[in-house]
From TrEMBL:
It comes from Cacopsylla melanoneura. This is Protein PTHB1. GO terms for biological process: cilium assembly. Residues 9-204 form the PTHB1 N-terminal domain. Pfam families: PHTB1_N.
Amino acid sequence: QQSSDDGIESIFNATSLTVGTLGEFENEIIVTSNYTGCLRMYCPSRDNLEVGYLSDDCLLEIVMGHPVIQTSIGKYVSGSPISYLATLHPQCISIYNLHVIPGTTKHGNEAQLQHIQDYRLTKSGACRFLSGPFGLNRYHDCFAVTYLDGSLEFLDQSESVAVSLPELLLPTPLLYVATCDSFVLQTDNAMLECYRYQNLISKKRVSWTISILSDIRISSQINPPSHGLYYLSINPFR
């Protein structure tokens, strides 16, 4: 999508919006970014819902030196109880902490973004990432980066592992299931495959696979099970 920002056209997509709590700031924050490198943080006041957007709702606005492909919030510093912001750039993943000093300016709070560290990517062409406690990590979240050629890269604080599967030649939707420490992905030949994390990084066998073009069932359940995998698809024949 495209929008006009102060006369400059901004490019963004569905991964340009993140919502969550950051640092020691108690309120939820809306984080927006775009490919021109502009990152904004908003904290709308519940007292002004009828009034609409106010300038005080914008906590922070900075222009980074690189395009921001995606943002995410998670436990990215080992041993720290607070959440941090991760930004995906063409060559790296950057980690930031948010400091908010209440009532220090005439407009309200003063917010500062503190750079913590960078994860260097092994190649260019990153298009999205996800994070989670891969390997049942109890201390911090790790990253899985998807590249335009379909390859994957897994980054921990101490190492990175590149994975190329023969069935993946294009970037694929990737889902992490923390309860079983597994990844579910869609291959180019319309198959859903599930890999346990250790099997995926060591390129071992798949846990299970199913075709998304066969055995289609339409469910009329009113109360679906509490745990399940749901695949959303568009029917081109309707």
